[in-house]
């Protein structure tokens, strides 16, 4: 896997060489196809096994008393979620653009997340007038939800957790910032934070932040993070206009 810096360097080379850019696009398409095929081949037996387990639990509810049943179901759910995350990651750079109000999109996300996050407080703040812009609202939603989920996990069981989603525009770029008052991210974790399949969590897949990075890059934008003992903020920067 390429690091964030290597991807940036490759992007700069592609801007100077159209033939190289075309070649890279073909390689990326081939990579996505291979990953999609592997995911598909794994998904079929996982679906069958999960259906069998659900049927067994329905017909024989006593299996839930077995000490091994709970770990089996937990691992099955992990596999299903992992396959879903792989699919999201694999498609995160494929955009279907349409005019979108980022204000309405973020307000909708925050409103829908608020009940599930309790007792964590989540608020939305618009810091400047925001024009509509052509982008892939589905991909942006997925990226923001990943960052909110990441913030929730960072806060943990605190009864004083706060998440703030803010939106601003400086005339050139939009900035979607998701802040939380969880613990500071160790400095040695920051370098590879957005690289796929690298995680510092006990139960993480290492794909959530990689999806955020891919979505930002697909929109010709960036994602960056700042972390202090008081607050951690992930910011997605999206240019007002970009090439398809």
Short account of what is shown:
The chain has 244 residues and is of the alpha+beta class. It is built from seven helices and seven strands.
Q: Spans with pLDDT under 50 lasting ≥5 residues? A: none
CATH architecture name of the largest domain: 2-Layer Sandwich
Question: What are the secondary-structure elements, in order, as H or E?
Answer: HHHEHEEHEEHHEE
Q: What is the rounded Rg?
A: 20 Å
Structurally, the number of domains stands at 2
The CATH C-level name of the largest domain is Alpha Beta
Numbering strands along the chain, what is their spatial order in the largest sheet? 2-4-5-7-6
Counting DSSP E segments of at least 2 residues, the number of strands comes to: 7
Mean pLDDT: 83
- Percent range of helical residues: 40-55%
The number of helical segments is 7
Characterize the structure shown.
By secondary structure, the chain is of the alpha+beta class. The protein folds into two domains: 4-91, Helix Hairpins, CATH 1.10.287; 98-239, 2-Layer Sandwich (Heat Shock Protein 90), CATH 3.30.565. Helix content is 52%, strand content 17%. The strands form two sheets. The protein has a five-stranded mixed sheet with strand order 2-4-5-7-6. The protein has a two-stranded antiparallel ribbon with strand order 1-3. Strand 6 (222-227) and strand 7 form a beta hairpin.
């Amino acid at each position: 896997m390429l690091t964030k810096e290597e991807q940036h360097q490759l992007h700069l080379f592609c801007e100077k060489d159209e033939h190289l850019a075309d070649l890279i696009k073909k390689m990326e398409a081939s990579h996505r196809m291979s990953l999609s095929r592997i995911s598909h081949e794994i998904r079929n037996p996982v679906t069958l096994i999960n259906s069998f387990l659900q049927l067994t639990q329905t017909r024989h509810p006593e299996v839930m008393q077995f000490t091994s049943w709970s770990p089996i179901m937990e691992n099955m759910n992990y596999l299903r979620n992992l396959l879903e995350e792989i699919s999201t990651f694999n498609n995160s750079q494929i955009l279907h653009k349409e005019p979108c109000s980022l204000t309405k999109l973020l307000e909708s996300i925050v409103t829908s997340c608020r009940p599930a996050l309790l007792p964590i407080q989540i608020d939305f703040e618009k810091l400047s007038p925001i024009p509509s812009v052509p982008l892939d609202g589905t991909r942006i939603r997925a990226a923001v939800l990943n960052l909110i989920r990441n913030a929730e996990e960072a806060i943990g069981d605190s009864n004083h957790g706060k998440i703030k989603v803010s939106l601003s525009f400086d005339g050139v770029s939009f900035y979607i910032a998701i802040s939380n008052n969880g613990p500071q991210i160790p400095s040695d974790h920051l370098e590879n934070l957005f690289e796929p399949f690298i995680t510092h969590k006990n139960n993480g897949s290492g794909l959530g932040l990689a999806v955020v990075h891919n979505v930002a890059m697909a929109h010709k934008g960036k994602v960056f993070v700042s972390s202090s003992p008081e607050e951690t903020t992930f910011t997605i920067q999206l240019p007002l206009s970009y090439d398809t």
